[in-house]
Amino acid sequence: MASKVQTVTRAEAATTLTNEEILRYSRHLIMPEVGMDGQLKLKNAKVLLIGTGGLGAPLGLYLAAAGVGKLGLVDFDVVDFTNLQRQVTFGTSDVGKPKSQAAQARLSNLNPNIQVQAFETKLTSENALELFKDFDIIVDGTDNFPTRYLVNDACILLGKPNVYGSIFRFEGQVTVFGTPGGPCYRCLYPEPPPPGLVPSCAEGGVLGVLPGIVGSIQAMETIKLILGSGDSLAERLLLFDALGMKFREFKLRKNPACPICGDKRTIHKLIDYYEFCGVRGEEAPAPDLHVPEITPREFKARLDRGDELFVLDVREPHEYQICNLRGHLIPLGELPRRVHELDSSREIVTHCRSGKRSAEAVDFLRKAGFRKILNLKGGILAWSDEVDSSVPKY
Ligand SMILES: [Zn+2]
What we know:
This protein is an alpha/beta fold. The protein has helices at residues 2-5, 19-24, 26-29, 35-44, 56-66, 99-110, 128-132, 145-158, 185-188, 201-204, 209-227, 273-276, 296-304, 317-322, 335-338, 356-367, 379-386, and strands at 46-50, 70-74, 115-119, 137-140, 162-168, 171-177, 236-241, 246-251, 293-294, 309-313, 328-329, 347-351, 373-376. Helix content is 35%, strand content 16%. α5 (56-66) runs parallel beside α6 (99-110) and α5 (56-66) packs parallel to α11 (209-227). 39% of the residues are buried. Zinc ion binds next to α9.
């Protein structure tokens, strides 16, 4: 793999380190496995990070600190307050700033000897090949299936290694795809999961340290690829269970029938990955249920008037603990067997966090014969925005 990285021509390759660099990297230089040769390989390496979020944070920090000469950062998002729990590149003062720019500033400050390029754009089938072509290694730190397939296919088409990592709640996966003779993401996952089956971090939650660990392993694999040393995770899938604190690994093999890296390739160019994954963007709203709604302001006005409204909260108990509107709590999943707790003669207002689960609850209860039932539009988030900002959003 090291040969992949030495694509810079002799003329433009750095052949020396400054005295400042020698001091900065001294703990690398005194290891025979890195030494001056290895540090120059790092200096001449060009790594593109897809995503600067949870996985991108340790990746960017460690690769910059290690002296990877050129780092590209692709992210179209802005820093949100809820990111700070795990995206340790960013500080509180970065909230609201474009992630790629905030990360560029942080990494350039960490190591002014390297070039950090921010690409404030969404990775698409139109720009992926152009973005990837100037880099030796692509590191996938994304959180959604369309982008994972896109990163995979672009790497295979260009013959570049793809250092892959993913996380979900307490579990992580890491491997290296796209090495010569090795498997690709499609060899492992020929089909995307049905849309909506695997929740995002925003929906399912994630323990903040987990992306730190998984992203750090990706950073280590990236550095090993650059140095051309050690046993790469290529052809092995490393699984990490944080709660059990267990690492397991599976042998990965190239699938001869893989549509992009197999013997009879059928994919020769990038496709529409949202269509392939059956989603119209990650943010695709739940199918419209067209249930009767009440806005937070109307709801407040009716409560103030003293209307007898029964408030049904269909979130989970741990969400109720974060904040609540003093409603009667029946989690959506328990509604069918606890429906007897509700009085269909009373007027009911149902709510959840965003209005999505409660719409399903209203739909279910209407089918069960309830007629006087309304969905709180936008849920507790909208209530906090429009009526009572003392109710925390989460
Ligand atoms: Zn494949």
